[in-house]
């Protein structure tokens, strides 16, 4: 489904060039659950952002299906994100001014294809998404009224409410305790079992074990790719 | 403030340059507007206050209460002999008359007109003019003495000592030699006492009208030791008028003509007669505008400062952790505000200095900044503004709980409540700005309407020669010579002319079969070809001509029937069903007048005075007081030059005074024009200041929403979605502002338009146009920030805390 060809990304700030990604080649098959690991600053988030098209590579090709995303303009990319992707972040990134329910609904409002039909339909989908992560009772609360684990589950609900083809998770358990972390991993696993493709960055080897394949990065390059024996 | 506080202030100012610019610039602008308008209000309200003991000087007003007369209201002048009659009854009274009459200084046979007045010898007991040479009291004792001001002394005598020199003056048409007996300091600008030459008032006892109650020929000033004494005296004036005015006005004369006392300092802003109080309105409006501009600027400062406070929460929290007390922090922020206000104050002085010429030109003023007064006043203002503007952000900032600020990733900027307050401030500012824009549009439209309205005559191509009224023997010769000029199409004489030059006369016309004195009509005596020269529209009957000998009313007595032409207004006032029905009718009982024709109303006077019912009398041969009107073709300057040349050949000793009808009419529109100009400047500034407020709100909210925008973009929002979201949010306060602006503007403008006889209707289009303009400006104000926010890469936005 996804093919990265020689993706490079460097940042130039204060005349210092930092190479975050130094020629990444990667395949992700449809329905795969991939974990990315590596020391801090090795470029994991940059890779994930590139996959999510919120960051543009300096060079290289990004094939999604048979489309070269590098060739798309900003508006098309926005549409691509709305239709195909779901994001989960370490710091949840819920909008403080919106309720949990509204935050989740936001995962639908920018979609121009499906689910534009009626508010009522949207509400049902949101309710389903909240149900599946178990935060329905907090629908009317604001993010700061929730615990970290609950916030992260809400963020996952937002990511999956639009049935994305690809879920990108950047240290989704990084700010959570063990119990909440396990809960989040269970949700991701079951999403994967239902067919979602997941790419997840994590620092926790045990959480990486939930994934079918694991790649290790160092200084902007992939140094190892390990598949879990089934 | 310690060194670190100053350092952080300096760094945050230089790091957020646009913030600093808007914050200080906005405040400076507000201060400058306040300063300039304050100067204007101070000037307009300072009239005659420079006079020593001005509180003791009162002007006698003649207040008319006649039945539906166009001349009702209080006028600043009285009959000539009033002071004499007052002194008969109240011998201890102190008072003087000031009679402004035409003054011409004749030098080498050429006349130059000057502002002059004849005054009583008691003048010095009322007005303490500052003398440069000679004594005021003794100079006015001898009849052939003249007093001149420094300007005139310089003009005619240069370096030589004027005292003892002789001047040839033509005072009120009579030529004579005068000895300069003293020089007084030129009067300041803030005065309605326009004279630079004074001569003693000669005895007038035998002149007709001098003791005619109801005539108004000069100014009578009285002086009282205390306001109470003036009050007591004023109470006796009704009885006095009843006693003395019986012969001219009838029993209970004070019911028709009342004498009143007006403190001299209030004269300038007191309108004469039915004139609308537009000067006062302008002063009050601009005074309010100045205060509001300052308030808004302060509010904007608070707005931006609290916005910045949110960004500085972490700094404050750290200071607290390091042991700064709340009091220290409050002091730091107020100190900062005072420092910023002081910088703004300095800039505002520069702005005012740069802006004054513009304001002076627009408002026909000559204001200057009195630094000895402005600087200390500004210093006080800066401290007050600093405390006022710094207090809220200071308290807000110092109250942030340090622990939660440091542990949360969110900047507390007063949260929901804070942004609501900011939004209300923006609503308030835009309401004012929109109201101002509506006002500017309507003022402009009304003035254009006045300028283009059909005045009932062709206003282009007319030259009004006012100085003709001063001529005697040369008059006929002048008119013939004018007529012979190639570019002059026709010439005429009129007792009253376009632009208001001439006389004001009114007369009661009793109606047949109806009791009472009848309605009061203005009357104007006209010469040959008056209506054709003006291009009046005849509606019914005919105008005067020499074929009908009976048209000429010159030598007809009051009891003979005289032919008159009336205007459209008069048709209704005299009770006729139509102009046609009026023709051939005779009105006026003992003083019969036959209507031979009806013309459309010719508006000679201010657009603010109601159109009077008027009748015209034909007197082609003698003219007591007449101004010439010439219709020319071609270029005005050529025609004017030719007319002037003719004048200087025939009547060189009389200063030539002529202008086109357009110029004369323009003088009537000047006050409103000036008000409109000042209003336009005010509107531009209000919009500008409003934009600063909106920009502040937008920058604050956008900064606060950077992360949210990033999240929305990862969820697939396009840049366009984000711009839409932000712009819509910022337009909301602007739209709500209309709810307040519209009624406010509507009420104010309805009042202003009521002052005009011929006013435009308050069409909703002005309101819509102002709203559209405000929306457009608002969008332009926020669009760059919104675009920038929308374009930021979401990955960056999410890293941005
Ligand atoms: N916007 C940026 N500007 C400049 N440099 C950047 C930017 N974003 C990332 N980098 C640099 O790119 C490199 C990779 O960063 P990245 O965030 O991908 O690391 P990471 O592997 O996710 O680390 P961590 O585990 O700490 O989250 C780092 O050296 C970082 O400093
Ligand atoms: Mg990272």
Automatic annotation (TrEMBL), chain A:
Every ABC transporter domain range: 2-230
Matches recorded under InterPro entries: AAA+_ATPase, ABC_transporter-like_ATP-bd, ABC_transporter-like_CS, ABC_transpr_LolD-like, MacB-like_ATP-bd, P-loop_NTPase
Pfam families on file: ABC_tran
Keywords: ATP-binding, Nucleotide-binding, Transport
Molecular-function GO terms, alphabetical: ATP binding
Protein name listed in UniProt: ABC transporter ATP-binding protein
Superkingdom classification of source: Bacteria
Automatic annotation (TrEMBL), chain B:
Main location per the UniProt record: membrane
Compartments where found: Cell membrane
Topology with respect to the bilayer: Multi-pass membrane protein
Database matches in InterPro entries: ABC3_permease_C (IPR003838), MacB_PCD (IPR025857), Macrolide_Exporter_MacB (IPR050250)
Record's keyword annotation contains Magnesium: no
Signal peptide residues on this chain, from the entry's feature table: none
Residues passing through the membrane, by range: 20-41, 283-307, 328-351, 371-392, 424-445, 675-697, 734-753, 765-783
The keyword Signal is assigned to this record: no
Keywords: Cell membrane, Membrane, Transmembrane, Transmembrane helix
Residue ranges occupied by any MacB-like periplasmic core domain in the UniProt entry: 21-238
Domain ABC3 transporter permease C-terminal, chain residue ranges per copy: 288-400, 682-794
Protein name per its UniProtKB record: ABC transporter permease
Source taxonomy: Bacteria, Pseudomonadati, Pseudomonadota, Alphaproteobacteria, Sphingomonadales
């Amino acid at each position: 489904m996804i093919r990265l060809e020689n993706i490079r990304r460097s940042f130039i700030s204060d005349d210092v060039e930092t190479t975050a990604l130094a020629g990444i080649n990667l395949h992700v098959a449809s329905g795969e659950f991939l974990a990315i690991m590596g020391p801090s600053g090795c470029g994991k988030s940059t890779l994930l952002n590139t996959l999510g098209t919120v960051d543009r590579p300096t060079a290289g090709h990004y094939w999604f299906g048979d489309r070269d995303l590098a060739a798309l303009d900003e508006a098309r990319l926005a549409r691509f994100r709305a239709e195909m992707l779901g994001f989960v972040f370490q710091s949840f990134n819920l909008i403080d001014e919106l309720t949990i329910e509204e935050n989740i609904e936001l995962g639908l409002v920018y979609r121009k294809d499906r689910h534009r039909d009626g508010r009522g339909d949207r509400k049902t989908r949101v309710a389903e998404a909240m149900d599946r992560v178990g935060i329905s009772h907090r629908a009317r609360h604001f993010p700061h009224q929730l615990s970290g684990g609950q916030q992260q589950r809400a963020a996952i609900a937002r990511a999956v409410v639009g049935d994305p083809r690809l879920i990108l998770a950047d240290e989704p358990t990084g700010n959570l305790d063990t119990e909440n972390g396990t809960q989040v991993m269970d949700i991701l696993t079951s999403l994967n079992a239902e067919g979602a493709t997941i790419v997840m960055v994590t620092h926790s080897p045990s959480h990486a074990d939930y994934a079918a394949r694991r790649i290790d990065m160092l200084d902007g390059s992939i140094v190892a790719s390990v598949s879990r024996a089934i | 403030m310690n060194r670190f506080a100053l350092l952080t202030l300096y760094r945050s100012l230089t790091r957020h340059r646009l913030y600093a610019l808007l914050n200080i610039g906005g405040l400076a602008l507000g201060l400058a507007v306040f300063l300039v308008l304050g100067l204007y209000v101070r000037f307009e309200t300072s009239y005659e206050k420079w006079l020593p003991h001005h509180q003791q000087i009162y002007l006698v007003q003649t207040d008319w209460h006649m039945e539906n007369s166009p001349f009702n209201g209080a006028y600043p002048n009285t009959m000539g002999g009033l002071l004499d009659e007052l002194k008969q009854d109240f011998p201890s009274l102190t008072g003087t008359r000031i009679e402004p009459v035409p003054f011409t200084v004749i030098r080498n046979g050429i006349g130059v007109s000057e502002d002059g007045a004849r005054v009583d010898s008691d003048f010095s007991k009322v007005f303490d003019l500052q003398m440069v040479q000679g004594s005021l009291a003794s100079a006015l004792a001898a009849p052939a003495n003249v007093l001149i001001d420094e300007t005139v002394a310089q003009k005619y005598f240069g370096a030589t000592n004027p005292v003892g020199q002789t001047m040839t003056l033509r005072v009120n048409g009579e030529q004579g030699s005068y000895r300069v007996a003293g020089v007084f300091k030129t009067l300041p600008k803030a005065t309605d006492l326009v004279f630079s030459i004074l001569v003693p008032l000669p005895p007038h006892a035998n002149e007709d009208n001098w003791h005619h109650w109801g005539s108004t020929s000069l100014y009578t000033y009285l002086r009282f030791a205390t306001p109470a004494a003036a009050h007591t005296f004023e109470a006796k004036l009704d009885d006095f008028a009843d006693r003395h005015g019986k012969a001219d006005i009838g029993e209970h004369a004070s019911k028709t003509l009342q004498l009143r006392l007006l403190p001299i300092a209030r004269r300038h802003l007191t309108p004469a007669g039915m004139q609308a109080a537009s000067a006062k309105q302008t002063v009050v409006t601009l005074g309010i505008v100045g205060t509001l501009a300052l308030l808004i600027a302060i509010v904007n400062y608070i707005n931006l400062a609290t916005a910045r406070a949110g960004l500085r929460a972490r700094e404050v929290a750290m200071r607290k952790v390091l042991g700064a007390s709340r009091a220290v922090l409050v002091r730091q922020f107020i100190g900062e505000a005072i420092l910023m206000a002081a910088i703004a104050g300095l800039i505002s002085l520069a702005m005012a200095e740069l802006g004054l010429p513009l304001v002076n030109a627009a408002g026909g003023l000559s204001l200057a900044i009195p630094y000895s007064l402005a600087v200390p006043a500004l210093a006080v203002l800066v401290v007050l503004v600093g405390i006022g503007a710094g207090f809220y952000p200071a308290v807000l900032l110092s109250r942030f709980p340090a622990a939660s600020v440091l542990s949360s990733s969110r900047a507390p900027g007063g949260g929901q409540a804070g942004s609501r307050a900011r939004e209300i401030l923006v609503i308030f500012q835009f309401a004012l700005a929109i109201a101002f824009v509506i006002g500017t549009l309507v003022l402009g439209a009304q003035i254009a309407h006045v300028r283009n309205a059909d005045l009932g005559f062709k206003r282009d191509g007319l030259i009004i020669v006012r100085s003709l009224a001063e001529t005697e023997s040369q008059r006929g010769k002048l008119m013939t010579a004018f007529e012979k000029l190639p570019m002059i199409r026709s010439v005429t004489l009129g007792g009253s002319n376009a632009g208001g030059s001439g006389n004001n006369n009114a007369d009661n016309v009793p109606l047949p079969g109806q009791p009472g004195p009848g309605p009061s009509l203005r009357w104007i005596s006209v010469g040959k070809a008056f209506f054709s020269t003006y291009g009046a529209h005849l509606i019914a009957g005919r105008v005067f001509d020499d074929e009908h000998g009976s048209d000429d009313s010159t030598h007809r007595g009051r009891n003979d029937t005289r032919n008159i032409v009336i205007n459209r207004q008069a048709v209704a006032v005299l009770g006729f069903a139509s102009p046609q029905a009026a023709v051939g009718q005779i009105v006026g009982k003992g003083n019969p007048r036959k209507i031979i024709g009806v013309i459309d109303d010719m508006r000679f006077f201010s657009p603010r005075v109601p159109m009077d019912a008027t009748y015209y009398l034909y007197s082609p041969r003698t003219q007591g007081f007449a101004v010439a009107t010439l219709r020319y073709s071609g270029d005005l300057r050529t025609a004017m030059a030719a007319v002037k040349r003719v004048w200087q050949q025939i009547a060189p000793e009389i200063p030539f005074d002529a202008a086109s009808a357009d110029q004369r009419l323009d003088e009537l529109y000047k006050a409103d024009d000036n008000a409109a100009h000042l209003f336009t400047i005010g509107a531009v500034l209000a919009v500008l200041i409003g934009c600063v407020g909106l920009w502040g709100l937008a920058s604050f909210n956008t900064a606060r929403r950077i992360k949210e925008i990033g999240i929305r973009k990862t969820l697939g929002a396009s840049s366009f979605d984000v711009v839409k979201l932000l712009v819509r949010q910022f337009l909301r306060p602007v739209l709500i502002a209309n709810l307040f602006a519209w009624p406010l503007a509507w009420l104010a403008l309805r009042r202003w338009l009521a002052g005009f006889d011929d006013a435009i209707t308050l069409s909703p289009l002005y309101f819509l146009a102002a709203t559209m303009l405000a929306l457009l400006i608002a969008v332009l104000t926020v669009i760059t920030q919104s675009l920038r926010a929308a374009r930021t890469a979401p990955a960056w936005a999410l890293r941005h805390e």
